[in-house]
Recover the amino acids of this structure.
């Protein structure tokens, strides 16, 4: 297989041509799906690149190389899901360690930290990570990592990654960032000083609502060796067919992100003026409190926004009237997806915790797809008219 490097390319070109561009053995433009569990040893004295597919697979390797190059890292790792990527990567921590997490994070991450990692003797403090001073005040002698998410899910709060990375490195603390909402097309946390970048590849990287997967990317060789050991040891790998789907999906990442984000901004501006929308959360709006930081560390506000329509009853009326969007868990697809966090992504978070974070009964998250703005506007108008 032929390897190319993407550092000299613009992002639109990089997503198409990074990683393994074609199969060297045949010239095939599409990387083969190596649907195998094991590999023949021609010579027992030879050093095998592949022996058992849990430990390595050429299709998965091609994906891992691709995401590493796109994020500006040295090593990428592909997992069975975004949660597998987060939990496996965090297992570089040990019993007795302390973790600081942004308080406004994905509900599945909250569940894993509070109900699984706590059983392993790893304690988590949830902090308003938009305030670097509050994060600094939460550091203990045994604090080993920060788990951050920006923009956050689902209220789109923006964290200052440069400042948080500087704080962490001054205390010998690792930093993990969930970059799912932005993708490497819009934001590269490793370049801002972050140690580990994680994605639910199910979302924008895959882009078509047809694959479950996760990835993690690092620069440091020692940290890469630890995550590789954990990926292999726990077997939390992504299969070859799903790896191939992600490679295919990433090729259109640029055009999808640009189109969806442009429409998201137009929708956010329209929602702000609508009398039945009480709040709009979108970091691409100049009125967003994190706008300046967002634009200093990312090149867009992204394709996800949230709106508050006041009550569960209003949510039900709106969703029942919508015709175009899916009302569903997940985001990042070619179709617009409307999600109800209190019942979907953050159902695992107790109501008092949701209330603290502004995840109200009237909050809807909107992942904008590739539909025409005019059609989405008309559909949301009908939904809001039903309230």
């Amino acid at each position: 297989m032929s390897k190319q490097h993407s550092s000299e390319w613009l992002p639109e070109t990089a997503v198409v041509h990074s990683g393994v561009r074609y199969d060297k053995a045949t010239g095939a433009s599409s990387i083969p799906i190596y649907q195998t569990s094991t590999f023949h040893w021609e010579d027992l004295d030879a050093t095998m690149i592949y022996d058992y597919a849990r430990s390595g697979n050429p299709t998965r390797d091609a994906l891992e190389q691709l995401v590493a190059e796109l994020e500006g890292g040295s090593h990428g790792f592909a997992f069975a899901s975004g949660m597998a990527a987060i939990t496996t990567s965090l297992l570089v921590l040990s019993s007795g360690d302390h973790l600081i997490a942004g308080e406004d994070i994905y509900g599945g991450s909250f569940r894993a930290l509070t109900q699984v990692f706590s059983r392993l003797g790893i304690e988590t403090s949830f902090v308003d990570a938009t305030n670097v001073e509050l994060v600094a005040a939460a550091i203990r002698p045994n604090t080993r990592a920060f788990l951050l998410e920006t923009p956050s899910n689902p209220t789109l709060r923006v964290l200052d990654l440069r400042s948080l990375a500087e704080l962490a490195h001054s205390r010998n603390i690792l930093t993990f960032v969930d970059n799912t909402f932005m993708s490497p097309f819009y934001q590269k946390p490793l370049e801002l000083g972050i140690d580990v970048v994680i994605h639910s590849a199910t979302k924008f990287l895959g882009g078509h609502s047809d694959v479950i997967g996760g990835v993690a990317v690092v620069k440091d060789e020692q940290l890469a060796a630890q995550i590789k050991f954990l990926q292999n040891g726990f077997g939390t790998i992504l299969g070859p067919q799903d790896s191939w789907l992600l490679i295919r999906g990433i090729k259109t990442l640029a055009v999808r992100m640009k189109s969806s984000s442009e429409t998201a901004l137009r929708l956010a501006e329209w929602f702000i003026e609508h009398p039945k929308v009480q709040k709009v959360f979108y970091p691409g709006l100049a009125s967003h409190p994190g706008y300046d930081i967002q634009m200093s560390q990312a090149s867009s506000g992204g394709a996800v926004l949230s709106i508050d329509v006041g009550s569960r009853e209003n949510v039900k009326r709106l969703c029942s009237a919508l015709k175009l969007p899916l009302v569903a868990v997940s985001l990042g697809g070619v179709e617009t997806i409307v999600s109800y966090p209190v019942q979907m992504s953050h159902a695992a978070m107790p109501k008092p915790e949701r209330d603290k974070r502004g995840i109200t009964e009237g909050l809807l998250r909107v992942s904008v797809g590739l539909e025409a703005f005019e059609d989405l506007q008309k559909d949301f108008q009908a939904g809001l008219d039903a309230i």
Notes: The first strand starts at residue 3 and ends at 4. The chain has a mean pLDDT of 95. The CA atoms of residues 342 and 351 lie 8 Å apart. The radius of gyration is 21 Å.
